Amino acid sequence: MPRRRTSPMKKRIVAMAVLVPALLGTTCGVASAQPAPKAPSSVVTLTYDASRAGQWSAAITQGVQNWNDAVHNVHLVPASSPGSADYVYVATSGWPETTLGPILPGGSGEVELGQEAVDEGYDVTRIAAHETGHILGLLDDYTGPCSELMSGHGPGTSCTNALPSAAEAAQVDENYADGGSAAVRPDHRQTVVDVWTAPVLAASR
């Protein structure tokens, strides 16, 4: 008896019938193995007013940019109007002093950028960035190295670093995690006064 030949078209249909379920099974397997995407954490936006900062304007802009480049959970931007700012920069004749944060939207922080620190020989951008660190909730650590922004005047006037360290940036991100809901704020309004006094050399005997 002569063999019945299967047409090329039928062969293709049979092959596709076998292949499609296999492909579907593989695709479904891969899709089910992927973890569900996580919702991005909300970034806290803080607004500032530097209209009364005078000659500190460029130092503030750079200091703010240094923080924005280093952290992820909070972003600092100029306020649309002075009265709407969450915190302000003000040029003064004394020593720098700042409201201790973490400041949140709707806050009323103030950074006083004192001329006395400049007269002592300290870098203006480091001062502005350091004082901004207080707004973001960081305390001083004068015993730290120059690589730590919050070491302030500790390393002396030769230190011009205005960049927060990785540890400092991580602490700020922790302060503002989950929209700042976990921020540990002082029980009452506190002001940090930074006396940027240059080290006094001991007299030779």
CATH fold description: Collagenase (Catalytic Domain)
Backbone structural class = alpha/beta
Strand content: 15-25%
Give the helix level as a range of percent.
25-40%
How much is the average pLDDT? 82
Strand order of the largest sheet: 2-1-3-5-4-6
CATH classification, class level: Alpha Beta
CATH homologous superfamily placement: Collagenase (Catalytic Domain)
Catalytic activity: Hydrolyzes proteins with a preference for Tyr or Phe in the P1' position. Has no action on amino-acid p-nitroanilides
Keywords: Hydrolase, Metal-binding, Metalloprotease, Protease, Signal, Zinc
GO cellular component, one term: extracellular region
InterPro entries: MetalloPept_cat_dom_sf, Peptidase_M7
Write the layout of secondary structure elements.
Blueprint: H1 8-33, E1 44-52, H2 57-70, E2 74-78, E3 87-92, E4 97-99, E5 109-114, H3 115-119, H4 124-135, H5 166-175, E6 191-193
Helix pairs in contact: 2-4
Task: Give a structural overview.
This protein is an alpha/beta fold and 205 residues long. It has a single domain, classed as Collagenase (Catalytic Domain). The protein is 33% helix and 16% strand. The protein has 5 helices and 6 strands; from the N terminus they run αβαββββαααβ. The protein has a 6-stranded mixed sheet with strand order 2-1-3-5-4-6. Helix 2 links the parallel strand 1 (44-52) and strand 2. Helix 2 (57-70) packs across helix 4 (124-135). The chain is globular and about 40 Å long. The protein starts with 7 loop residues before the first helix and ends in a 12-residue tail after the last strand. Residues 9-33, 35-39 and 200-205 have low confidence and may be disordered.
